[in-house]
Every structure is written in structure tokens, then in C-alpha cells.
Write a structure and sequence with these properties.
Shape: globular
Strand order of the largest sheet: 3-2-1-4-5
CATH superfamily: TPP-binding domain
Distance between the termini: 20 Å
Strand content: 15-25%
Radius of gyration: 14 Å
Number of domains: 1
Number of helices: 6
Largest sheet: 5 strands, parallel
Structural class: alpha/beta
Length: 154
């Protein structure tokens, strides 16, 4: 099934819209997109949302279908998504060394989309009972298991 644009597959079925949010250089988002594309090929509409243009460019290079950058772009985009994926810190104001604004964090949490959040952050916050797995292992687990599970209910 190949993508024909505007979130439609060649069989006419609307593709699920998956938003991957990242900041800084976009390495977390790029890793997620790489594994999601590996497992799900072009069956999902992957939208890269970077807190800056460098992060967005990195995620587009990894295979996202579309990309947007900045606060207003994030706020508008998350309203239309089926699933949002990113580090847990996208839900915290002033996180990612200040790249996540209060408005961005609020928009992510107010979005009706299902959220899949990685326990990765750079803040002085300690999350209990989370895996210490490296990013590639977490990204593969999301692509192989969690995303498939969530897609069955969205």
C-alpha cells in the first residue's frame, strides 16, 4: 500500500496520523521514525513536529512524510492527530532545556490523540519504575508492540 498524499493510502482508506515530537537535533524523533517506518512501512502518515527547524529536518531525513517547526505549528498540529509520540518531557512546560513552552505542553495534553511517551528527559526529574533501556530498544518496542496495540483502539 503506497501513500498517495493527504493521508490517503492507494486503497482509499484514511491513514492514521502519527505525530512525532522532538527538540534539539531531533535524534529521538528520527530514531522513532526510522523504526516505525521499518515495521509499518507507509501504512501510517508520519508528521514530524520539531521545536526547531533542525529537529524537524532530522526527522524528515529519517522518513517522516511531513514536518513542521515551532510553537504555533505544534499547537495546531496536535489537534488533528490520532497518536502523539515523544519523550515524556513534551508534556512539561520549560522542558527540553526550555524548548517546550507552557502552551506546547498544554496543547499536547489537551489533544484528543492517544499519547505514547518515552521515559527520556534532561530535567532534574526522576521517574520511578521505568526501564533504563537505551533509546533504540525503546523505539523498537514502540514500533513493534505499543503502536500496534494502540492502532487497534484508535
Amino acid at each position: 500500500m503506497k501513500e498517495t498524499g493527504l493521508g490517503k493510502a492507494d486503497n482509499g482508506i484514511t491513514m492514521k496520523k502519527i505525530c512525532i515530537i522532538d527538540g534539539h537535533g531531533g535524534g529521538i524523533g528520527a530514531t522513532l521514525i526510522k523504526y516505525i517506518r521499518q515495521i509499518h512501512e507507509n501504512r501510517l502518515d508520519l508528521i514530524a513536529v520539531g521545536t526547531n527547524a533542525i529537529a524537524t529536518a532530522s526527522m524528515l531525513k529519517a522518513g517522516a512524510h511531513k514536518g513542521v517547526s515551532g510553537e504555533n505549528a505544534l499547537i495546531q498540529t496536535v489537534k488533528k492527530m490520532d497518536i502523539i509520540i515523544g519523550p515524556v518531557s513534551i508534556t512539561w512546560a520549560n522542558a527540553i532545556l526550555g524548548e517546550i513552552t507552557a502552551g506546547m505542553a498544554e496543547a499536547v495534553m489537551d489533544s484528543p490523540a492517544v499519547k505514547i511517551l518515552l521515559p527520556l528527559h534532561q530535567e532534574n526529574v526522576h521517574l520511578m519504575d521505568f526501564s533504563e533501556e537505551p533509546l533504540p530498544h525503546l523505539a523498537m518496542a514502540i514500533a513493534e508492540r505499543k503502536l500496534k496495540e494502540v492502532l487497534n483502539h484508535v
